[in-house]
Design a protein that fits this description.
This protein is of the alpha+beta class and 83 residues long. The protein has one domain. The protein has two helices and four strands; from the N terminus they run ββαβαβ. The strands form two sheets. A two-stranded antiparallel sheet has the order 1-2. The C terminus is likely disordered.
C-alpha cells in the first residue's frame, strides 16, 4: 500500500509504502494517530475500514469513479481535491 501522512494545518506531507496486512496497518495507526483515515474503494476497503474503526478513528472512503475525481473535460490539469 502507499499512504500519505498529511498535516492539514501546515500542509506538510510525506508518502510511505508498506505491505498491506492487518498488523502493519494497526502499527501505522498506533504510531501516527491520525484524526482521519481516507481510503479508496477497493477489495481491501472492508477489512481496512474495520481496523480503522476498531482503532476509534474517523474513516472516509473515496470513490475514484465518482465525477469529482475525474479530470475536468477530459483534459489533465493540476487540480487538487480536498477531502
Amino acid at each position: 500500500m502507499v499512504g500519505c501522512i498529511c498535516d492539514t494545518e501546515s500542509h506538510e506531507h510525506r508518502f510511505d509504502k508498506a505491505l498491506l496486512d492487518k498488523g502493519t496497518l494497526q502499527g501505522i495507526l498506533r504510531s501516527e494517530r491520525p484524526d482521519r483515515v481516507v481510503i479508496e474503494v477497493g477489495s481491501s476497503a472492508g477489512w481496512v475500514g474495520q481496523v480503522v474503526r476498531q482503532a476509534g478513528m474517523a474513516l472516509q472512503v473515496a470513490n475514484p469513479n465518482h465525477e469529482a475525481w475525474r479530470w475536468p473535460n477530459g483534459s489533465p490539469r493540476a487540480t487538487v481535491w480536498t477531502l
